[in-house]
Amino acid sequence: MSKKEKALAKLRQNPKNVRFEEIETILNRLGFVKRQDGTSHARFTLGSHIIDVPKRKPYVKPIYVKLLLEELDKIEELDSSE
After folding, report:
1. Which CATH number do you get for residue 13?
2. For 40-55, how does the pLDDT look when each residue is reduced to its tens digit (9 = 90+)?
């Protein structure tokens, strides 16, 4: 299991205790580029895919983690079908 897979598995197992920095690290490993900073949200882009993540201290709300995982699953499905 790669670091990327372990990190995503950790998010899936416990979406309640996820820090913004963890999400940022995962998205950077997947090739996303942080496009917006300095506001309450950060925008990550990978080609035409855009993911917005709100910055909250100490943890990102679980609903946003679940939405992030759903979006990443959609991207993997698109990539595997090409």
Report:
1. 3.30.920.30
2. 888 999 888 889 998 8
CA distance 58 to 73: 25
* pLDDT tier, 4 (very low <50, low <70, confident <90, very high otherwise): confident
Q: Distance between alpha carbon 68 and the CA centroid of its chain, in Å? A: 5
Query: What is the number of domains present in the chain?
Result: 1
Provide the token pair at 69: 């995982």
Angle at CA of residue 20, ends 16 and 26, nearest 5°? 95
- Measured between alpha carbons, how far is 15 from 17 in angstroms, rounded to an integer? 6
Local confidence band at 82 (pLDDT 50, 70, 90 cut-offs): low
Task: Give CA–CA dist 65/26, Å, rounded.
Answer: 12
Boundaries of domain holding 48: 3-81
Provide CB contacts within 8 A for 5, sequence distance 6+. none
